[in-house]
Amino acid sequence: MPWYDPNDAQSVEKYSSAVTLSDMEVFIFPELMYSLVLANAMSPLMWQFREDSWFRKLPKMNTYRRVQRTKQFIMDNFVFNLDLDTWGLTTKRRELARFAAYIDEKILAQSNALFGYEGDKYYFDIDIRRHFGLDKYTSDIIPYWKTETVEAMHAFRYKESYPTGAGECVSLAALYATALHVIAGIPLSDIHMMATPLHSQNYVDVREGLLTNNRRIVTKAMWYNGTELSAKARRALENERITVVANNRGYVHTLYEQATMPPEVYRDFTRKLRNYLKTDINFYTLASFLRQNSALQNCFQIAHSCCGKPRYIEAEKAFHYEHSSKSRIGDETQVGLLHQIDEDEYYPEPLPNRILLDELENYFRDNPLSIDSPYNADKLKSYLRHTCYNVEEVVNDLLNFCRIEPRIPASNKHWVEHPPLEFDGLDSREAIVEYLESIRDTHPVADLAFTAFRDMNRAPWKPFLKAALERNPVSVEGSRDLDIDQAAHRLWALENESIYDGARMAQPDEVWNFGRGDGLEKAVCLLNIIRNLRPEDEAILEKRDGTVCVCIKGGKEYRFESRKELGLPEERDFPPRPQS
Predict the structure, then answer these.
(1) Do residues 291 and 284 make contact, with C-beta atoms less than 8 angstroms apart?
(2) Is 1 domain-assigned?
(3) 4, part of any domain
(4) 204 occurs within a structural domain
(5) C-alpha separations of 495 from 500, 513, 562 in Å
(6) Which residues have a Cβ under 8 Å from the Cβ of 277 and sit 6 or more positions away?
(7) CA–CA dist 112, 118 (Å, integer)
(8) Are residues 532 and 516 in the same domain?
(9) Do 27 and 444 form a contact (C-beta atoms < 8 A)?
(10) Phi, psi of 197 (to 5 degrees)
């Protein structure tokens, strides 16, 4: 079954979105999220990473250590990037016009932060537009926030002030999903992608569960350790609705009635995610709760045996010493931490009007409290009641700390099942490419993957050019004060080397941002500049003797040397020129 129809506007729009992969496009077309994972799996660069000396001993490691090794590689080689200038700006009006056939503005505002969704009080508190640096623009302007391929992420090292690669959160989630399979050997079926209005992360079914969070991996123990890093990692699931869940079996979208993930697979995912997001109440979680809620620490004290005698110290002082130590209050390293504190910091007698944490530790040892028991809240209130705070509020906050109920898409969907995408037994890039090629006629995500992969021998030109000439504003804005000759000279001066191998093509803003490109890519970039700044000039592409020419009818010709062995697109592949 052919999934792409060049004569159908909606089909062309979806496939062009697989090229630019903006957050908005991924939200509208949830198949795109996993198409990028597959594109990265076909990438030679991803398989080069696997051969890095950092992974030399990987085959001898257990699953968890392989995951951690992969995580460290990503942390060392990529940073989180949310620069509004990277991929430029668009407007709500323009994006709504693009997607009017797919989704109503009022419905969109329920799930997209830049189109009106405010979620809980959290969004009002952070002032969403100021938080992203959009307050200096009109309320209609929003960022593109394009999701990068692994090649584009890696190419950030060519930009000024970027010593390593970079990417935004959806890019990092897709990179993690691919790397965990290709490098760490995690089955695709154990990796689940989750998108919220402002974030994207993965749930990985390893041990008690892991979350990828931008560059980091968050274990269940880390989720509940109360540190600042963990508090940041928790924000999305604490404050936002999960709008899309995607894995190798399909997707479930909060706004669409149709879902392609089998119901039993979705139920299994939700059960495991809920287990990850809850923990029983014990002394460790209580100490972690106090670590995160520092205002409560001055209601507690800790006892410590020093020189054969009991000594006492304010809890907030002991927690402060954690900053310069690897030891923590609440776990087996607590005694070591207390030993590191100078004796003159302790008091010989218990401090008045403070709860002794040691007594709570003994209580929880003998009375473990299941978070699922409805009676345990009353037990906690009776045991934690104190004049220092409102016990009702504190216990409620503690219960919320120990269990987050994820707001996931409803399961009462119309299920349309596609065959699973399985890489089991495929241990080379070439095998994966061959496999995806063999199923693309029966699997829409596999077919979209070749467009996300930018392989112009296997992907249609029309969507690529629509994206290139309509959604690459950075090269246009960068040339606004230049005439066409000056823009061409600037492109000629760039490195004549593509960030993509073989028949794969960079978009104009990738050429402009990373300062390099094959002659064919530079020619398309110049065409983008001419079409948007000089729409009255009729420019076409022609290929002659190893060069690509941007030829202006009745005017100049601009030639670029190209090593890409590609035929040029036909006139019908180009979108209409903008009005003068």
Answers:
(1) no
(2) no
(3) no
(4) yes
(5) 13, 12, 12
(6) 223, 237, 403, 404, 405, 406
(7) 8
(8) yes
(9) no
(10) -55, -30
